[in-house]
Design brief:
Helix content is 21%, strand content 33%. The chain has three domains: 1-119 and 255-324, FAD/NAD(P)-binding domain (3-Layer(bba) Sandwich); 121-253, 3-Layer(bba) Sandwich (FAD/NAD(P)-binding domain), CATH 3.50.50.60; 326-415, no CATH class. The radius of gyration is 22 Å and the shape is globular. α5 runs parallel beside α6 (193-199). The strands form six sheets. Strands 1, 2, 3, 4, 5, 6 and 17 form a seven-stranded mixed β-sheet that branches. It has a five-stranded parallel β-sheet with strand order 8-15-9-10-11. A five-stranded mixed β-sheet has the order 20-18-25-22-23, with no helix packed on it. The chain has helices at residues 13-24, 62-75, 122-125, 138-146, 163-174, 193-199, 260-264, 302-320, 399-402, and strands at 2-9, 30-33, 79-81, 85-89, 94-99, 102-113, 117-119, 135-137, 155-159, 178-184, 207-209, 211-217, 224-229, 242-244, 248-251, 255-257, 289-291, 330-334, 338-342, 345-346, 355-361, 365-374, 377-387, 393-397, 408-414. The N and C termini lie far apart (57 Å).
Length: 415
């Protein structure tokens, strides 16, 4: 049994940012537990640029972005366990860890979850047909190509227009493969607009909106796939089938927060985000247990992940100092056009701090208004030329307004 002030589960950008923030504010007894062979998480396989514009004011590749945080953590002397897996978490903030040195039990004052997210697989979305070689999640394919140096296919099709899938369409093209197309179930792309332009349009790769894969053929190796157009209920329409002869199918069909540890311990999860339900300092229902980054909700920019890691660290610092008193909870409620809001509640509206709320819209909208209400009274209205589900929105409520809200904060979209 060991005792630690703070244990951070996950050594990606959120976990590293949280650890650095705590260390720079006088907390020395910190441990990062990372299951991989190095810190940085998924960033290490993202060799394209586009990271760091908000955080560092310049474009970096994923490994460069991760290296800056890793170097800072090392310089500060933060303890990091690599190749280590947290096998259990208990509500009293006891965790069990397994690594090459054996089995350990750690009792913590604070636990910060920063485990990131997982990709949905072919089985999870129930694609009809065989399960041959040549079917990969986009992230797995990215690792095989960018880190392991494998050439995974010559004729490629991609299901899902999430950002990883779009980026892999370009990457596979640059590796000499022929990308025959990208199919998207929704009538709009789920990737950032810049990735649609830079990864599809610039390489003349067709995007089939309102389409999905309805059959996989070939065994033991993939030989082809069939896509079909879908109706407004996302059901395939007979007679719209298109066959593509391919040896590789990449799946970019969504990310899910990796919350196995929290759900096993009875932590309350949001039905929409699949992440922990938290307050404005990223604290869950269990006092002293925090979550940040993609394990809380899936972000579109890594800079926001790092920012949220620091926010969780500042909340943890207040908890360690015993400053979290006079709790008065205000709910946050997503209404028309809004899928979810993080945080799901505000526990300290009288703290004197402005608060930022993150959310996503349910569908693309143009010339719309974000409307924020406090106790059924409109407190802010923001006009937006365009709103997309792929892009996370942020709104801020001033501290003086928060003090006058006693029941709920509602965010909706009109237009």
């Amino acid at each position: 049994m060991r005792n630690k002030d703070v244990v951070i589960v996950g050594g990606g950008s959120a976990g590293l940012a949280a650890a650095i923030e705590l260390k720079e504010n006088g907390i020395d007894d910190i441990l990062i537990i990372e299951k991989g062979t190095e810190t940085g998480g998924i960033l290490n396989q993202c060799i394209h640029n586009g990271f760091g514009l908000h955080e560092f004011g310049e474009e970096l590749s994923g490994p460069q972005y991760a290296e800056r945080f890793t170097r800072k953590a090392r310089e500060l002397g933060i303890e990091i366990w690599l190749n280590s897996t947290v096998t259990a978490f208990y509500p009293d903030k006891t965790i069990e860890v397994s690594n090459e040195n054996g089995y350990k039990v750690i009792k913590c004052r604070v636990v910060i979850f920063a485990m990131g997210c997982q990709e949905r697989t072919a089985g999870q979305i129930q694609i009809p047909g065989m399960r041959p070689q040549g079917v990969y999640t986009a992230g797995t394919a990215q690792r095989y190509v960018n880190i392991d140096g494998y050439r995974i296919g010559k004729k490629v099709f991609i299901l899902g227009s999430g950002d990883i899938g779009l980026i892999m369409a370009r990457r596979m093209t640059l590796e000499g493969a022929k990308v025959l197309g990208v199919a998207e179930l929704m009538p709009y792309s789920n990737g950032l607009q810049r990735n649609i332009v830079q990864c599809l349009k610039d390489y003349d790769i067709p995007l089939y909106l309102s389409h999905t894969v309805t059959n996989i053929e070939g065994y033991p190796r993939l030989k082809g796939i069939t896509i079909s157009k879908v109706d407004e209920n996302r059901k395939p329409i007979k007679g719209t089938e298109k066959f593509f002869e391919v040896d590789t199918l990449l799946l970019s069909v969504g990310l899910v927060p990796d919350n196995t540890l929290g759900s096993d311990a009875g932590v309350m999860l949001d039905a929409k985000t699949r992440g922990m339900m938290v307050n404005e300092i990223c604290e869950g229902e269990i006092p002293g247990v925090f979550a940040c980054g993609n394990v809380l909700h899936v972000h579109d920019l890594v800079d926001y992940v790092s920012e949220e890691g620091r926010k969780a660290a500042r909340g943890a610092l207040r908890y360690l100092k015993g400053e979290l008193t006079e709790k008065r909870t205000v709910r946050t409620v997503p209404e028309d056009g809004v899928s979810y809001i993080v945080p799901q509640r505000v526990d300290y509206p009288d703290s004197g701090n402005d608060l930022e709320f993150c959310f996503r819209v349910t569908r693309p909208m143009k010339d719309a208004s974000i409307v924020i209400k406090g106790d059924d009274r409109e407190i802010r209205r923001i006009r937006k030329m365009s709103l997309l589900p792929a892009e996370m929105e942020k709104v801020t409520i001033k501290s003086d307004i928060l003090k006058g809200i006693h029941d709920k904060i509602v965010i909706r979209v009109e237009g």
